[in-house]
TrEMBL record:
<feature type="domain" description="Tyr recombinase">
    <location>
        <begin position="141"/>
        <end position="335"/>
    </location>
</feature>
<dbReference type="GO" id="GO:0015074">
    <property type="term" value="P:DNA integration"/>
</dbReference>
<protein>
    <submittedName>
        <fullName>Integrase family protein</fullName>
    </submittedName>
</protein>
<dbReference type="InterPro" id="IPR002104">
    <property type="entry name" value="Integrase_catalytic"/>
</dbReference>
<dbReference type="InterPro" id="IPR052925">
    <property type="entry name" value="Phage_Integrase-like_Recomb"/>
</dbReference>
<keyword id="KW-0238">DNA-binding</keyword>
<dbReference type="GO" id="GO:0006310">
    <property type="term" value="P:DNA recombination"/>
</dbReference>
<dbReference type="Pfam" id="PF00589">
    <property type="entry name" value="Phage_integrase"/>
</dbReference>
<dbReference type="InterPro" id="IPR010998">
    <property type="entry name" value="Integrase_recombinase_N"/>
</dbReference>
<dbReference type="InterPro" id="IPR011010">
    <property type="entry name" value="DNA_brk_join_enz"/>
</dbReference>
<keyword id="KW-0233">DNA recombination</keyword>
<dbReference type="GO" id="GO:0003677">
    <property type="term" value="F:DNA binding"/>
</dbReference>
<dbReference type="InterPro" id="IPR013762">
    <property type="entry name" value="Integrase-like_cat_sf"/>
</dbReference>
Length: 338
């Protein structure tokens, strides 16, 4: 997270963060530690620009949210092992285990940045989180994959209004490219390269490419009636988009706005379209398109290395979760007995 990242080799930056944190009558939730460093008089404007871009906005928000919630519950920095353990106990069952583990990581980094004894490493805190995991389980809630056949059913239920064209392009590109919702809304027309086999999407930055090395995602022409490339072209024609964000809000009169969709809107579109097709929307989210491609490809017998090339998972272990789900009924011993 931000504090550790920025202060590992620079004690000055740590002092800037914590001097601001200790300012009277100022809540941590009102501060952005990276912005405080970036605007420090001790560093140049050029250095401040790069500090500002050293971590993702999502990481900054999560870090500050965790510390704000810890304070709201009566905690403070520095914290004792007893205070941290009590905070975990109060939120066990209300928050997911994954959220509590992330909160511990945020508290740990806050203490490291200030060179304070780290309460999260104490035997008491470790025993507390271990007990919470045993009591509530630590399996992460995964988005329900929108599988190929269900996707076709959803697409068949769409109409011919501008919003229908947009949603078809979004669903098909998100599925075919195994795109994260943040990648979908960040797509600009300039990121689309036309080739004989379809299109190539140029992603400047993604979750697993925070340093913006760039990734290329191939979207081939489809053999079936629903083609992501054709759907994209239809949306661009209807919307008359010639530059800028591809996926934008459309009002009830069919007018296309100039700014891009929010990441939250992607999940809402998925759920609304699933429900409109007569399916139960429970469990579906913006991640269902990406999960749907991975799971559907595994069910179709596509080798794991080929799936990973499209999904760009950081590790085989992450992809293996989808493959395990797809193989639950393959040669299941119960089917031979009952």
């Amino acid at each position: 997270m931000s504090a550790e990242l920025l202060t590992r080799d620079n004690p000055l930056l740590s002092e800037v963060i914590w001097a601001a944190y200790e300012a009277p009558n100022t809540a941590w939730g009102q501060l952005n530690c990276v912005q405080l460093i970036a605007h420090s008089a001790e560093i140049s404007q050029e250095a401040g620009f790069f500090v500002q871009n050293s971590v993702s906005e999502n990481s900054r928000r999560a870090y500050e949210s965790d510390l704000r919630e810890f304070e709201r519950g009566g905690g403070s920095i520095p914290a004792s092992p007893e205070t941290v353990a009590e905070h975990l106990a109060q939120n066990a069952g209300r928050l997911s285990v994954a959220t509590l583990v992330r909160r511990l990581a945020s508290l740990s980094k806050a203490h490291q940045a200030r060179r304070l004894p780290n309460p999260t490493r104490s035997a008491l805190v470790r025993a507390t989180i271990r007990g919470i995991k045993r009591t509530y389980g630590c399996a992460q809630r995964q988005a329900k994959p929108l599988l190929r056949d269900e996707l076709i059913q959803v697409l068949d239920a769409t109409g011919d209004k501008p919003k229908d064209h947009r949603d078809r392009a979004l669903l098909l590109l998100g599925f075919a490219g195994a795109l994260r919702r943040s990648e979908l809304v960040a797509l600009h027309l300039a990121d689309v390269e036309r080739v004989r086999q379809g299109v190539i999407l140029h992603l400047l930055r993604s979750k697993c490419d925070q340093e913006a090395r760039g990734q290329k995602i191939a979207i081939p022409f489809a053999r079936g009636r629903w083609c992501p490339v054709v759907a994209l072209d239809a949306w661009l024609t209807v919307s008359e988009i010639s530059e800028g964000p591809i996926f934008r809000p459309v009002d009830r009169h069919g007018r296309v706005h100039g700014h891009r969709l929010s990441t939250e809107a992607v999940g809402e579109i998925v759920r609304q379209r699933v429900m409109a097709a007569g399916l139960d929307p429970s469990g579906y989210s913006g991640h269902s398109l990406r999960a749907g491609l991975a799971t559907s490809a595994a069910q179709a017998g596509v080798p794991a290395w080929r799936i990973r090339a499209q999904t760009r998972h950081a590790s085989e272990a992450m992809l293996a979760r989808y493959i395990r789900i797809s193989e639950l009924f393959v040669e299941n011993p119960a089917s031979a007995l009952l």
